[in-house]
Design goal:
The chain has helices at 4-8, 11-16, 19-32, 37-53, 60-71, 76-99. By secondary structure, the chain is mostly helical. It has one domain (4-99). α4 crosses α6. The longest helix has 24 residues, at 76-99.
Length: 100
């Protein structure tokens, strides 16, 4: 489903995201195998969290751009699933921040 070269060759991504981050993302995609859309976003979010803990994180704008590029190669049904998962993740994040 996903090809890391798609990211590397995407002018929109290469214009706004550093080469180091694209390399890291390509490695993540190569390790993601054939994950379903339902499993892909949690995998990427967990990977991003681990990267952030190591000082390599993506801005919200970079994350949004990456997801939008990935969604271009998905079916409408898969895009809908991704959007639903992102909405749930956003609500969970908002709830955690409100509890602090």
């Amino acid at each position: 489903m996903l090809d890391s070269s798609m990211l590397r060759n995407n002018p929109e991504l290469s214009k706004h995201i550093s080469e180091d981050k694209l390399d890291m993302l390509g490695g993540l995609l190569n390790n993601s195998g054939n994950l379903t859309p339902e499993a892909l976003i949690p995998f990427l979010l967990n990977s991003a969290s681990n990267a952030a803990n190591n000082g390599k994180d993506f801005t919200n704008a970079e994350t949004e751009l990456i997801i939008n590029v990935l969604k271009k190669n998905m079916s409408p049904k898969d895009v809908q699933k991704i959007d639903m998962i992102r909405n749930i993740a956003g609500m969970m994040t908002a709830n955690r921040q409100a509890d602090k």
